Amino acid sequence: MEKITKFQQRFNECLKYSDIKQTELAKAAHVSKQCISDYKSGKSVPSIDTLFLICKYLEISADYLLGLED
């Protein structure tokens, strides 16, 4: 069984409870929709620059997404 990272768990949670579509977020973060899918599934994690854009667009802190704070 694959371990779910704190980032993956919180990223999925944020997308689920927002009205933001994966395609919108991909465009705002300057990545492909496949990249967003890969972040959701845990296949990859965003770069620092992409993480910054994701957090800005979702209006959440990187510390929260990374599991450094609640």
TrEMBL record:
Signal peptide residue numbers: none
Protein name: Helix-turn-helix transcriptional regulator
A single MF term (Gene Ontology): DNA binding
Key word Glycoprotein present: no
Pfam families for the chain: HTH_3
SMART domains for this protein: HTH_XRE
Gene3D superfamilies for this protein: lambda repressor-like DNA-binding domains
UniProt lineage: Bacteria, Bacillati, Bacillota, Clostridia, Eubacteriales
Presence of keyword Lipid metabolism: no
